[in-house]
């Protein structure tokens, strides 16, 4: 190793830097809050830059591999940065940065300096490290550790403040995550017993020689573990229950990233380890059920955050649909949709947080007239909401278009049924978000204070607390950045879809990944 | 690779016990379940990962596979951390609500609220129906009473008519008899007048009695109507009370729900 920093060495940075920053912040404690927020934001900026460099390099030169600890592969645990992982890494880092800006601004505005800096930021950074690690991991056990890393961060974030509702939601969330981890461990045991390795590249080679039943067992167990994390039907019930209680930035980053880590793992698993397996058709029906159940739940909700949580579940179905098609076009559509959805869903949850700050509630029965009071928030909600429901020419439309085209191209009545289900889901999503927008923003205010709170028909009797009339500048700025990023996917749709196609091609070919890790063509 | 049956049985028992405990509502029991499950899975990794009976370190040829052991160590550490966290959750939950039970989620509570609302409105409707039936019964009874009274009055009137007719007949007979006895017209007239006065007196008495009967009848009717009004008023009051109770229950449930739904703003970043 001639140079101090090589491209391969950089692969560790998105994992190590946030962890290091979390450690430093824990050591500092509640003091030096300017330095603290500088460390958090600086770390995330650097990891974002590193991720962009990795994406460019991985796209140009093929997968980058780092063998940790200097051991030769396959003994070492390796981190692999290929097109898929670096693409989702870049998007997730960008989104995380926006959320961090939001939460720092939020905390400054509320004059809460000690607790957020001492607990919130380290937990957040540990979670970011876990997410990066999960994306980059080239080893199943490392993936497990990454999951535990991000989950342990998320437990702390979800139960932040320890109020009763958060403890209640946190208990469900924690137990659900623990069960999923146990399933993952069982899958690891079975995999190791069957193949004698947990390195993804080696597994991809060795699974070729294993009996079908063993492969199916391993695949189903792993899928179950990931499906719980990704909130896929019928394992989706925990999500709309636990997410809305958390603080807005936490819900936003959970919605954007944590479920996508599950989806990413499923993509990796299906494409690399079990290509063309019999599970694809099962995944199709699961995807359909996820889409419909989620969106029907969203239609029934009266709380903005809960409605968004249900649409989150519903749109995971699109990604699973893309994976289940097991074609290059389908995978490309799924990857495009992941990229689009991370941005849009996070933005929407942050806007819901701003609504809560401004009006004191997110229940659409009590809100009203927000468009006159805060036109900025109204626009910031409207644009990603329309993007989510797939209004042309936004990226949501393009992602759905890619999936629909892939579905029709692959043919067969299950795929066509799913396309129809996807379109129906899209319509119902439009209905759900339009209803919310019309009630919360558009209808005339009926309260005394114009634009803040409408006296609901079923008055709860409690006066909602309006914290500040003016929001700090950085709050809308971070959301504007996210919305703009979502719109940029429309402008850059050509290069982006080409990149996702290349990533999907690389995934389906499998060979570049395996040879990059193992060093030779098997 | 061959593995012993006993370790696998142990894994199975541990995992089964863990799953059983996980299905409980108490967080402490669930935590115990997770721990048992974790131990079972760790044992599974060791059992499935390598041949039993090999030494872990000595020599180079016959040593056991170190990788599963490393994995299990990692898993144990992770489970330890998670256990500590869940215990903290349990403690906080106990501090806040005095129990460590996992509560229903919002959707469940909403479904329950709706079913309770349905039950309440069903109760109100059935109560309303019962009162309506009662009123109808009483109205029918009243109508019957009135009919009976009218019948009785008619009978009494007829009786009186008959008696008057008989008196007239007797009078005729008596005049005939007197004429036959050869009384003069003047005397006859005089006697007739006397008798007529007596008969008139009797007829007036009879009319008074009829009037009395009518009055009695009217009073009964008034009383009946008052009772009916009273009953209606009571029914309305009870219905109002039931509706108020229902609304109160619903409001209470809503408040509880709102408390559970809306995260308190304190401590939020």
TrEMBL record, chain A:
<comment type="similarity">
    <text>Belongs to the CPA3 antiporters (TC 2.A.63) subunit D family.</text>
</comment>
<keyword id="KW-0812">Transmembrane</keyword>
<feature type="transmembrane region" description="Helical">
    <location>
        <begin position="141"/>
        <end position="161"/>
    </location>
</feature>
<dbReference type="Pfam" id="PF00361">
    <property type="entry name" value="Proton_antipo_M"/>
</dbReference>
<feature type="transmembrane region" description="Helical">
    <location>
        <begin position="84"/>
        <end position="105"/>
    </location>
</feature>
<feature type="transmembrane region" description="Helical">
    <location>
        <begin position="411"/>
        <end position="433"/>
    </location>
</feature>
<feature type="transmembrane region" description="Helical">
    <location>
        <begin position="173"/>
        <end position="194"/>
    </location>
</feature>
<feature type="transmembrane region" description="Helical">
    <location>
        <begin position="473"/>
        <end position="493"/>
    </location>
</feature>
<dbReference type="InterPro" id="IPR003918">
    <property type="entry name" value="NADH_UbQ_OxRdtase"/>
</dbReference>
<dbReference type="InterPro" id="IPR050586">
    <property type="entry name" value="CPA3_Na-H_Antiporter_D"/>
</dbReference>
<dbReference type="InterPro" id="IPR001750">
    <property type="entry name" value="ND/Mrp_TM"/>
</dbReference>
<protein>
    <submittedName>
        <fullName>Multicomponent Na+:H+ antiporter subunit D</fullName>
    </submittedName>
</protein>
<feature type="transmembrane region" description="Helical">
    <location>
        <begin position="117"/>
        <end position="135"/>
    </location>
</feature>
<feature type="transmembrane region" description="Helical">
    <location>
        <begin position="38"/>
        <end position="58"/>
    </location>
</feature>
<feature type="transmembrane region" description="Helical">
    <location>
        <begin position="6"/>
        <end position="26"/>
    </location>
</feature>
<feature type="transmembrane region" description="Helical">
    <location>
        <begin position="367"/>
        <end position="391"/>
    </location>
</feature>
<keyword id="KW-0472">Membrane</keyword>
<feature type="transmembrane region" description="Helical">
    <location>
        <begin position="334"/>
        <end position="355"/>
    </location>
</feature>
<dbReference type="GO" id="GO:0005886">
    <property type="term" value="C:plasma membrane"/>
</dbReference>
<dbReference type="GO" id="GO:0042773">
    <property type="term" value="P:ATP synthesis coupled electron transport"/>
</dbReference>
<feature type="transmembrane region" description="Helical">
    <location>
        <begin position="279"/>
        <end position="300"/>
    </location>
</feature>
<keyword id="KW-1133">Transmembrane helix</keyword>
From TrEMBL, chain B:
<keyword id="KW-1003">Cell membrane</keyword>
<feature type="compositionally biased region" description="Basic and acidic residues">
    <location>
        <begin position="215"/>
        <end position="228"/>
    </location>
</feature>
<dbReference type="InterPro" id="IPR050601">
    <property type="entry name" value="CPA3_antiporter_subunitC"/>
</dbReference>
<dbReference type="InterPro" id="IPR039428">
    <property type="entry name" value="NUOK/Mnh_C1-like"/>
</dbReference>
<keyword id="KW-1133">Transmembrane helix</keyword>
<dbReference type="GO" id="GO:0005886">
    <property type="term" value="C:plasma membrane"/>
</dbReference>
<keyword id="KW-0812">Transmembrane</keyword>
<feature type="transmembrane region" description="Helical">
    <location>
        <begin position="70"/>
        <end position="90"/>
    </location>
</feature>
<feature type="compositionally biased region" description="Basic and acidic residues">
    <location>
        <begin position="238"/>
        <end position="257"/>
    </location>
</feature>
<feature type="transmembrane region" description="Helical">
    <location>
        <begin position="6"/>
        <end position="24"/>
    </location>
</feature>
<feature type="transmembrane region" description="Helical">
    <location>
        <begin position="31"/>
        <end position="50"/>
    </location>
</feature>
<feature type="region of interest" description="Disordered">
    <location>
        <begin position="215"/>
        <end position="269"/>
    </location>
</feature>
<protein>
    <submittedName>
        <fullName>Multicomponent Na+:H+ antiporter subunit C</fullName>
    </submittedName>
</protein>
<comment type="similarity">
    <text>Belongs to the CPA3 antiporters (TC 2.A.63) subunit C family.</text>
</comment>
<keyword id="KW-0472">Membrane</keyword>
<dbReference type="Pfam" id="PF00420">
    <property type="entry name" value="Oxidored_q2"/>
</dbReference>
